[in-house]
Structures are given as C-alpha cells and as structure tokens.
Amino acid sequence: MARTEWLSEGGEKLAFTPPEERDNFHCDVAIVGSGYGGAVAAARLAGREEEGGRLSRVWVLERGHEFVPGAFPERFADLIGQARLTWGEPPRVSGRPEGLFDLRLGDDVSALVGNGLGGGSLINAGVLARPLREVFREPWPRDMTLDALEPHFRSAERMLGGGKLPHSPAKLRALEKLATRIDGRQADRRADLAVTFADGATPAGVQQLACIGCGDCFTGCNHGAKNTLPTNYLALARRRGARLFTGITVLSVGGNDTDGWEIDYRFTDRQIARRFGEAPPKLRAKRVILAAGAYGSTGILLRSQRRGLKRISASQLGKRFSTNGDMIAAAYAMPETIHASAREETAPSHDHRGQSGQDDPAGEATELLVGLHAADGLLLRRAFQRAHRRGCVDPLRPQPRSDGVGQRLHAIS
C-alpha cells in the first residue's frame, strides 16, 4: 500500500447515506476524531464481530481534510493558507475552517491543534517518550502504573516505528551541549522519533521513504518519512473495514446505550455547508467514542449537556485543564549559527543528511535558557514582547505567582 492513495471519503457522502433498514443505524461505532485515541480505537474495533457474526460497522468522523505527502505547506508563505483561528463558545472560526493549523485562543491558555486526518500526528515533532514513574502518583487510578502499561507502550512503539536521529545537525549539537552544562552529564539524550530513517514499510504495510532531514515535521512531511497515523493505525483500520470520513465537525451527541446515539454535525467546509444547508441529517450510532482531543471532546460534551444530555457530571467537566508543555527555551548570540528551521532558500526536497549544518561562528558565546514552569500568561507575553523589540530574550527576573508556583530563569554563561 502506497501512501499516495486516499484513506478517507468526503463527509458530504453522509448527506446521501440513510440508516440501514435492518436496525435504523448508520454504524455500530462512531469515533469522533482521528488523532491517537481515535486512530487506535478504530484499528482495534474494525474487523470485530457484532452479535450474529456480522462485522462491526466502524466510522471515523474527522473535522479536517486528508493530506497526502506533497499536499502539506512547503514554505512559510504557504502556512497562512492552512491556518484557522478558533475562539469563544459557541466556537467562532476565522481563516480557513478546514486548515491544517488550528490555533485555539483562550483567555489564559492558547494551543495549536492539528486539523486533519491523523490529528496532531501531522504537525507534532513525533517524539515517543514514555512518562516518568513519578507521573503516576496520585490522583492517577491505583491500578494504572508504569509497569501495568509496559506491554501497551511496547505495542504502540512497534506500531509507530520509533528511531533515533542518525545524523547530528548543528541545532541538536547545541542543545546537547546546553543540556550537559545544566546537569553535567555526558549522555545520549536523543529521543525516539516516529520517523522512518530507512526505506521500508510500516507495520500497516504503507511504504515509507527514509527521512532527508528537511526539518518539516512540524508543518507536515511531504517526503513520506514521518510515521503519522495515516501510515499506521488509520491505514490498518481502513484495511480492516473502517470508513473514514473527513470534513465533519461534530457539535453534540444525545441518546443512550439502549436506544442508541444521535450525532449532530456540520460540514467543516463553508461551501459544502452552504450547499447542503445548515442542519444535515443526524447520524445514528449504537455506540460513540469521543476522541477529539482535550478541546474537541470537552466542547462536544459541554454542548451536549446544554442540549439535554443528563449523563455528564457538571462538577468537573471543562475544569482542571493542563497544557502538555511546561518549558520554553530561547537562546541568542550563539557561538555558531543555529537555524531553528529549514532555510527558505533551500528546496524542500533537498537532502540534508550527513551535513554538519555549521556556519562560520559570529559574535561572543552568550547563551540563555528561559524555563517558565506553569508560566503566567502575562509574564510570558511580556517576555516575548521584549524579546521581539530587542532582538533577543531579556534576562527577566522571576515573578511570584499567587498559587505559589514560581518561574526560574537559568543564565548559562
């Protein structure tokens, strides 16, 4: 199976797809979202038998479009055409609703969310890092320990195909030196990456090419080397009979496990939405799995609650959110030129493997690492406003927080 094929079907097909007469359901399982949770669920449930020996009808509903290698942005100028901004409740969207990069703006926390078949796997760094044992302290369930999850970690790592970067670009060398100066340890700190470093096939049979080191993991791999979910779990789900629909924005769900569930949705693309009207027919499913991420699933549940779904506890829904990143590092006046991303003048298809990435050193060696743990949004904004004005990061003094969580700045001389 080559990844140039399409795994998904256009969501507009749903407007012409009535429930099956035998049971008045469109599907047995509707999975909302195609990120890691949704993709794994689809791969595991597709091909299973329902009562009577019939294969389970598994549908995946994805808000964004499907991207194949070659369809992702190649230069900074291309990014604006794939951006959408989402804020407020009910959600308001500006930019391109089906854009790959969904920036969620909030009063205290903002986040960048992947919007496409494969979710965040399309635009993340592909880092495969197991959590530390300390993560599983309370309030985690007592039976959910690192040892109990060990076989599942191994299974996911086999499927996602992790490996360490085989070459050493200047940016990596600089980070390794900085880490050594912080803790004094000489160690291989390279994380396992969901990237293919040798031509071959994924466990789902999708042919991949070796990484060329172009640095476009965050904007979408056009070379076919990054092990995104469409190359493994989603490809496996489709091969087992799941149907993947794109361009479907789920708004709310209603119903119960006895009588089934109804899914209220809209078409993501404005032109398609105008063509079919504001309220397409609801989908009926025996079971629903919400896997639309911390923002998406929570929003669906909140709207479902307001529309009469009683089986949701209002006391915790939408509360106790946490971001998945707790440090921002900035460095300037490095002893050598360190590029944060691929150069604009370099062709995206250029093979960077084996290159040192070094340029002639310029300026004095002055390095600064800024660690903002549980950072106050106002402090963060001030820091980078000043950095932008001055062309570097200003050595700010730590400011106390009312909740007792402080920030530390480490000046590395």
Helix fraction by DSSP (H/I, runs of at least 4) = 10-25%
Q: Please name the fourth-level CATH homologous superfamily of the largest domain.
A: FAD/NAD(P)-binding domain
Indicate the overall shape.
Answer: globular
- CATH topology of the largest domain, what is it called? FAD/NAD(P)-binding domain
The average pLDDT score comes to: 80
Measured by DSSP, the beta-strand proportion falls in 15-25%
The parts where pLDDT drops under 50 for at least 5 residues are 356-377, 390-413
Order of helices and strands: EEHEHEEEEEHHEEEHEEEHEHEHE
List the total number of helices.
8
The beta-strand count equals: 17
Largest sheet: 7 strands, mixed
Strand order of the largest sheet: 1-12-3-2-15-14-13
Condensed summary:
The chain is α/β, with parallel strands linked by helices and 413 residues long. The chain contains eight helices and 17 strands.
Provide a descriptive summary of the structure in words.
It is a single chain. With 413 residues, the chain is α/β, with parallel strands linked by helices. It folds into 2 domains: 1-126 and 194-323, FAD/NAD(P)-binding domain, CATH 3.50.50; 170-191 and 327-413, no CATH class. Helix content is 21%, strand content 19%. The protein has helices at residues 36-45, 76-79, 146-160, 170-183, 233-239, 270-276, 293-306, 377-390; strands at 9-10, 27-32, 58-62, 83-87, 92-95, 101-105, 111-114, 127-128, 192-193, 200-201, 207-208, 243-246, 248-256, 260-267, 283-290, 367-371, 408-412. The longest helix is centred in the middle third of the chain and has 15 residues, at 146-160.
